[in-house]
């Protein structure tokens, strides 16, 4: 029997992280520190940004263009999940938890991403309580939400 | 240092030799001293409850020793075990940060030492201390990841057999053993395993028997042997729905 991809439906339940929730209206010094470690990368159409199974070395923020999330299901089968939204942060949780990506990120059109190297991002968090505390609040809220969803799905 | 039954209570974090690098309290000396001034050390016997689902959070519980079961219940009495917390973890973290009610009930599985910190003091500590805050962020990220994977595997997978296989594979992953086979000492009853995957004790017993017949596992007392992790993984999604 063909393997199912239902397990990835969980992705639709989890609300993505957006850069304005985390990085908007920071104090000037924190904002400058962030700007120093943020670099821009351009990808051509159909490029792979992240592959499932990789431990990402960067967090990515989509600035422009269209990219999609997909899962590899078996040897040749790929299931597209959804398009990435503008300003969506990709790889945040994987960078924090040092875990591997569950999904592929591929460009549909030419895309520009803001990238922050894992080491630099963690270093920034350990130096700047403002951004670290903001991330803590965001994660706290999302964790509460996901457990509430979990209860409604499970019972 | 006091001794409560088999539990040696460490009152001073500075002298604590239980602390490991993944513990929340693995902080620099200066930060550890501040944390030390905030925490209240308690010991709890097996079966006691640290907090209840729906109760307003009044602080965090940092587990130093022992294990704690986190479970959530429905109105009709069904219980699902969300997580078994191990030493070093912070319990009640997300509800304290969001200043909301607990999403789970925390019940002591084996005698525990717990350091309690009041919500306001803990939040102030994190706000002014990036090192501790990052440590809490990492833990929350793990919690979030765990919840996400639970939704994927428990809430939406198609059969109970798949859920049980995924639970076993999760235990294998946690052990970090790279070999094809895995030996696991199970300290849970069939009922508790059922609560972890949202099914009855009877179904767990039946599925374990079925897994044995399919030569996926061997089970002798509390010793579980998974013969081939890949074969167990491949079995997921190949079975019809059973509840």
Specify the structural class of chain B. alpha+beta
Unreliable parts of chain A: 1-9
Count of discrete domains of chain A: 1
The residue fraction in helices of chain B comes out at: 25-40%
In CATH terms, what is the architecture of the largest domain in chain B? Answer: Sandwich
Q: In percent terms, what proportion of residues of chain B is strand?
A: 25-35%
Task: Describe the largest sheet of chain B.
Answer: 6 strands, antiparallel
Mean pLDDT of chain B: 86
Through-space gap between termini of chain A: 28 Å
Task: Report the top-level CATH class of the largest domain in chain B.
Answer: Mainly Beta
Mean pLDDT of chain A: 85
Q: Structural class per helix/strand content of chain A?
A: alpha+beta
Write the layout of secondary structure elements.
The complex is a heterodimer of chains A (155) and B (243).
Chain A: H1 10-13, E1 17-18, H2 19-23, H3 28-37, E2 38-43, E3 48-50, E4 58-64, E5 67-73, E6 77-83, E7 88-90, H4 92-97, E8 104-107, E9 111-117, H5 118-127, H6 129-154
Antiparallel strand pairs in A: 1-7, 2-9, 3-8, 4-7, 4-9, 5-6, 5-8
Helix pairs in contact in A: 5-6
Chain B: E1 2-4, E2 7-9, H1 29-38, E3 40-44, E4 49-51, E5 59-73, E6 79-85, E7 90-91, H2 93-97, E8 105-118, H3 119-127, H4 130-155, H5 160-175, E9 182-185, H6 190-197, H7 201-213, E10 217-220, E11 223-226, H8 229-235
Antiparallel strand pairs in B: 1-2, 3-8, 4-8, 5-6, 5-7, 5-8, 9-11, 10-11
Helix pairs in contact in B: 5-8, 6-7
């Amino acid at each position: 029997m063909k393997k199912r991809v239902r397990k990835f439906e969980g992705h639709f339940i989890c609300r993505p992280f957006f850069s304005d929730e985390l990085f908007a209206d920071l104090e000037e010094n924190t904002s400058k520190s962030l700007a120093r470690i943020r670099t821009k990368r351009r990808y051509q159409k159909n490029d792979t940004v992240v592959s499932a199974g990789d431990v990402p070395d960067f967090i990515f923020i989509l600035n422009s263009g269209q990219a999609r999330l997909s899962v590899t299901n078996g040897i040749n089968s790929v299931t597209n999940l959804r398009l990435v939204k503008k300003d969506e942060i990709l790889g945040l949780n994987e960078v924090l938890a040092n875990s591997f990506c569950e999904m592929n990120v591929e460009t549909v059109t030419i895309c520009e991403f803001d990238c922050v190297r894992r080491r630099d991002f963690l270093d920034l968090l350990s130096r700047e309580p403002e951004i670290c505390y903001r991330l803590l609040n965001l994660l706290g809220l999302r964790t509460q939400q996901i457990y509430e969803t979990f209860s409604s799905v499970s019972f | 240092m006091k001794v409560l039954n088999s539990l040696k209570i460490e009152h001073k974090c500075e002298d604590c030799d239980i602390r490991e690098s993944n513990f929340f309290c693995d902080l620099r000396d200066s930060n550890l001293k501040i944390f030390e001034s905030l925490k209240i050390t308690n010991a709890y016997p097996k079966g006691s409850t640290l907090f209840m689902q729906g109760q307003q959070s009044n602080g965090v519980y940092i587990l130093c020793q022992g294990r704690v079961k986190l479970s959530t219940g429905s109105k009709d009495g069904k219980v699902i075990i969300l997580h078994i917390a191990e030493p070093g973890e912070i319990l009640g973290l997300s509800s304290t940060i969001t200043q909301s009610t607990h999403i789970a009930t925390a019940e002591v599985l084996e005698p525990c030492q717990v350091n309690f910190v009041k919500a306001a003091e803990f939040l102030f500590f994190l706000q002014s201390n990036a090192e501790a805050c990052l440590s809490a962020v990492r833990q929350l990220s793990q919690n979030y990841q765990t919840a996400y994977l639970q939704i994927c595997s428990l809430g939406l997978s198609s059969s109970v057999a798949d859920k049980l296989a995924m639970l076993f594979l999760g235990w294998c992953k946690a052990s970090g053993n790279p070999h094809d086979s895995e030996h696991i000492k199970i300290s849970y009853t069939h009922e508790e395993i059922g609560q972890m995957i949202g099914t009855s004790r009877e179904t767990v017993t039946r599925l374990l028997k079925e897994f044995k017949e399919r030569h996926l596992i061997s089970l002798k007392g509390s010793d579980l042997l998974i013969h081939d992790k890949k074969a167990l993984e491949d079995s997921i999604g190949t079975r019809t729905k059973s509840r």
